[in-house]
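User: Continuing from earlier, I have the next pair ready.

Assistant: Great, send them over.

User: Here they are, in order.

Assistant: Folding the first of the pair now:
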Amino acid sequence: MPIPRSTTLLPVIAIGLLWGLNWPAVKFMLTELPPLTIRAVAFPVAALILAMLTRAAGQKLRPEPGEILPIIVTGVLVVFGFNVLTTLGQLQTETSKAVIIAYTMPGMTAVLAATILGEKLTGRQILAVLVGTSGLAVLASEDLDGLFARPLGPVIMLLAALSWSLGNVALKARKWSLSSLALTVWFFVISAIFCAPLAIIFEPPWQQAWPSSPVLWTWAYHILGPMVVCYALWTVIVGKLPASTAAITALLAPVVGMSSAVILLSEPVTWQKLVALLMVLVSITLVLLPSPARRVSSR
């Protein structure tokens, strides 16, 4: 039975808003919390809540024996690598810039899928990569001297986009016995296992001060909103929608992320950021929206 359009746009918009607002939320938490600690707490809590939702939905959680290694590799790339690197990247660059760089990942995924999985790279996808890359060039032109002097932030954000893209290619590379929601649980579990030792070694909890109430509330939002609600909605509802509708999330999140960074963090607005954001949005649209031929054939 098709999902009514009036009820599909609401979760799609909610995901875009929550994921977009997560960017300044993480930046704010970084004023009192170290990066690995933020993720080391968020990963296991999100895994536990999502596991309860999975069981409540009657879905199995036990993977097939041959899926364990692929789950580890995919989880490290799509959740651990992306989340940890984006947090580290925001320590080194403005959040508004970090958002733009991170959302080059759809075009990057298309290229990697063609290279690794042998998928056909369409003319629109090639154009998307060119437009997205040009957007990065415009963004870099804002402060070339600063970029050459402090390249670490943008490099980390590009690595985060690469990690997410590789993870999605790994996700598409096989047919899984588990549901998308159950897989997400394991991705968070794997990420928690990798992150906790690193946080203990490099950010000993006993050497940290207890964060303020605003940071704690933001931490709770970070876990319950972007991690639990967004992943649950995405896997349960958005996965059943047409690509053109689901694409709204990918387009809305960077707009909300950059806008909220400007409003909440008082980051400067420049024409380079606006043009780069527009070009990245065009790139995302070219990758995610179905071609006219596919739309006709699907009717």
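And the other member of the pair:
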Amino acid sequence: MAGKIRIGIYGYGNIGKNVEKMVAKNADMELAAVFTRRDPGKVTTLYKGTKVVAADKLLEYKDKVDVMILCGGSATDLPTQGPETAENFNVVDSYDTHAKIPEYFKKMNEAAKINKKAAVISVGWDPGLFSMMKSLFMSVLPEGNTGAFWGPGVSQGHGEAIRGVEGVADAIQYTIPSEKIMNEIRNGSQKEYTTKQKHKRSCYVVAEKGYDKEKIAKTIKEMPFYFADYETEVTFITPEEMKKDHSGMPHAGHVIRTGMTAPDEKQLMEFLIRLDSNPAFTASIMVAYARAAFRLFTEKQHGARTALDIPVSYLSPDSEEKQIAEML
């Protein structure tokens, strides 16, 4: 690839800030601009030279951005921003409402094909890396049982969903996996486990004054796609407690598959992540997939793709020859 890949960042929250940091760590990339719905003059970026542009000027940068990384949330931002942006830019996003991904993929595929762009959707660690591992493990061990477990740690998308509830001033959500069930799968259990059995969701909420806390808790627990299928506990705390006890963004996760290659041959495959910063890790994955999106575009592979469609070699800045020599 000649020249540096020009990256745009659309949205400057936790993910956007970390994308800015990760672009700086990739020698084959440069940051063209940050696009924000806020007043650009009031946005302070990590690095002095970063250009901040109002989101309504996005189309003025059609020829100045090679890949736009969409850093909005899955609940309310991406369903609209994704297709709108994919019509005019190569894009990468981390859309993570699992049940709606097929529907979102179809919209992004149609949008990206309008002006012959490439859209890489739903990349992060789950969906994304976990999706790859599940597919790989199940292909290698066709007879077996797979468990995907999230946590213990902070789920950004679920926290964002809670913050969208009327009467919520601030919130954070921790996903807690069942160690008991993880060990059962490691030991070869072939039982099917429900979502509710495998995880618990623990929510810490700062309520706005005058709002009914019981109503807020009920709304959270009944939220489809996020909490309705889980054992969910809601704890109300003060703004001071939130700042003191819940300011970090750690996370972890496992994909575990136990399979049989013969009646007396049990095989175990396991993928583990432990993260000090969930948004930094997610941003790092998105930046790697921005390289893949640009490669797809240059090869005239237009439309939408997911982590399941893209060769791992497309994520690397190294040549094919170097990867074959050093990685195999």
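Worth noting for the second one:
The chain has a mean pLDDT of 95. Residues 278-298 form the longest helix (21 residues).
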